[in-house]
Amino acid sequence: MSLSRDVILLITHSGDFFTIDRVAEALAKKGVQPFRFDTDKFPLEVQLTAQFDKSRSYHKLEYGANSISTEQVKAVWMRRIWEPNLGKELAPQFREACIKESLATLDGFWDSLRAARWVDNLERIDVAHNKLRQLRVASELGLIIPQTLVTNKADAAREFFQKVKGKMVSKLLTSLSRSMEQPAFFLYTSVVKEEDLLDAESLRYCPMVFQEEIPKQLELRVVYVNGNVFVGALDASIYAGAKVDWRSPGVDVGKWQHHELPEQIVGCLKAFMDKFGLLFGAFDFIVTPSGEYVFLEVNPLGEWGMLEKDLDLPISEAIANVLIS
């Protein structure tokens, strides 16, 4: 069935739930038709046809009983892109080529939607994903950032360990995955001990990020939606003895709490997002025992469902409003 009215395209994956459903519900309540596209279902369960001639191009997407054309899509929410799930029956020697061709076809489809309103533009998301660029911009705008070293030199890592008096953590700049946010091997932020650096020569194969370990009173997830700021706070004392990263599996973080950011921090966040040209971002901050707000990073595709669920923050409605504005 071809949808007869204007639609909002929701780009996600088959395992997504709650956040995608809340945004779809918010759009429907406003009289707008959402269309969910699970990217991992292409090409096995989703059909995409593109035709070009001298005067025009035409794209049609068919998923289940519904279909849409490029002309119907007025706005796009970029939630997630996952690699195609090609099943087990495809011979391994063909899998890589099929994945590449499928992703290239999707790139063409995204291009056909360039006139639509995106939350957010893919190229801007790609630029904003670089954590080193984030640190530079945050510092330039007056946000406090941790002392940071990125190196593939073992001696430099050891010297930095001494500089921060042994209070050091490590992380990666990226998750080890080829596609946007697909489940993959991922290293969470972890404490570095002196013995960990005795055999650090393997850094020559892969540079790593080292930062001073910041003392924590609270950890914040700050969700920015087109000038609106929604904040959830975790009491770091509850899980301080477990692991450094509250996102790590098995860490009991307790309940999310409401928190109000200082106006100066809110102003910096707006300037930060303007720099990157983004409408959405999920920021991570530490609030130290002395009350300093320390910027860690922003994820242009970050999670926020726990804040809406636990704190009843209207994030899905804010996203819906941006999409239909």
UniProtKB/TrEMBL annotation:
<dbReference type="Pfam" id="PF21068">
    <property type="entry name" value="ATPgraspMvdD"/>
</dbReference>
<protein>
    <submittedName>
        <fullName>MvdC family ATP-grasp ribosomal peptide maturase</fullName>
    </submittedName>
</protein>
<dbReference type="InterPro" id="IPR026446">
    <property type="entry name" value="ATP_grasp_MvdC"/>
</dbReference>
<feature type="domain" description="MvdD-like pre-ATP grasp">
    <location>
        <begin position="8"/>
        <end position="125"/>
    </location>
</feature>
<dbReference type="InterPro" id="IPR048936">
    <property type="entry name" value="MvdD-like_ATPgrasp"/>
</dbReference>
